[in-house]
Amino acid sequence: MTEPRQLPLPRQGPRPLAVHLATAQAMWLSSLAALPLLRSDSPSWKPSGPLGDLLPALSATSPEQLGGAVDRAVRERADAFLTGLERYRHHPYRRDIEDPPALWREGDTRLLDYGATAPGAPGAGSGRPVLFVPSLVNRGYVLDLSSRTSLLRWLAGHGFRPLLVDWGWPGAVERRYDMTDYVAGRQERALDAAVAAAGGPMPVVGYCMGGLFVAALARRRPREVSAAVFMATPWDFHAADLPTVERLVASMTPVLPLVREWGELPVDGIQSLFAGLDPMLAVNKFSRFARLDPDSDKARGFVALEDWLNDGVPLVGQVAEECIAGWYGANTPARKQWYIAGEPVDPAAIGQPTLHLIPQTDRIVPPASAEALAAAIPNARRIVPPLGHIGMVVGGRAPQLLWQVLADWLEDVK
């Protein structure tokens, strides 16, 4: 008798699932609740603009017809969203590549050698070394997402030896860390291991939050850091959409004592902050996913990226407080009041060549925020690709518009 095939357990995401479901429900129910107000003589609402222009047509429609149409639209959109969620949660795709060997470990942090993935590599790293530093709150393998989409393996195939700092999951030791422990401690020890393995200094690339860490690293270790690349790196946290930043800080400030007590900001708490930037993003993208062929490359790419997004890492308590109250609240980096090991991180003191990759449609790090870092560093080179925060490394146009640009600059820089 043939044993039944064991299907993988359904995914738990998108995280936090309750927030996404509640947001969708509130939006759809508010549409139904607003129907009684869609009357030209309603004293509680006098719409103008495009909605006001619809009133003559709506007045010619009976309340029953309008109510039925809105109800059908709500049901169709809810069905598309929930169908997309279920298809994602049960999709058979799982990450189809393994991590390369680690050159160095400390706690759960590893230094991964992608030189070993180059075609024909005998197992030891080869090529020109480049150190990559990702964010603490998302896994670094967004730079090595799948067998079809991997910036690091692409670079390894083009003559480079990418070395990735994989921060890992914070344990008992890391839960006592502050920014200095990560930046001047673990990051610098990873740099030392990279320099020892490569036999000399190298460029360092920071992505998002990792770029702030690289700014401090370039300032503190100029002999080992020959050049620096900042990919979608925030610096002036008040440069754009200040009301959203203020709302974020106001909502999180009462929670900070609990974060200190727990010792971390949990993954779902971090994901809730990202969801607040675009509350309907999950609804829209999972509704589109419901229309895809599940066996298509596009569907598998969607699942691969969503798996990474939902595979987050908690942010330890002191670092979370420095990010929220310091970076977002007091704007300490732009005001030269962000201190590492007792010294302010002053980008004007960075003397190495720098490249700033500032994605034009970034909604997580507004271009004006990243531009502030480029403006503060002497002789910085800026490139503004028409990409988004994540699309700059995994999007369909990323190899042409960013990967090749990065490789060319790294090839030319001395």
Detailed description of the structure:
About 45% of the residues lie in helices and about 10% in strands. About 40% of the residues are buried. It is of the alpha/beta class and about 425 residues long. The strands form 3 sheets. An 8-stranded mixed sheet has the order 1-2-4-3-5-6-11-12, with helices on both faces. It starts with 16 loop residues before the first helix and ends with a helix. The model is unreliable at about 1-5 (pLDDT under 50). The protein is globular. It has 2 domains: about 15-35 and about 65-90 and about 285-315, no CATH class; about 100-240 and about 315-410, Rossmann fold, CATH 3.40.50.
Keywords:
414 residues; Rossmann fold; 2 domains; eight-stranded mixed beta sheet; two-stranded antiparallel ribbon; disordered N terminus
What's a quick, concise take on this entry?
The protein is of the alpha/beta class. The protein has helices at residues 17-34, 49-59, 63-89, 151-156, 179-198, 209-220, 242-252, 256-262, 267-277, 281-289, 297-310, 317-330, 367-376, 391-394, 398-412; strands at residues 102-106, 109-113, 128-133, 160-166, 202-207, 225-231, 264-265, 315-316, 339-340, 343-344, 354-357, 381-383. It has an eight-stranded mixed beta sheet, with helices on both faces. The chain has a two-stranded antiparallel sheet with strand order 7-8. It has a two-stranded antiparallel ribbon with strand order 9-10.
By secondary-structure content and strand pairing, the structural class works out as alpha/beta
What is the CATH C-level name of the largest domain?
A: Alpha Beta
Shape: globular
The overall number of domains is 2
Residue share in β-strands: 5-15%
Uncertain segments are 1-7
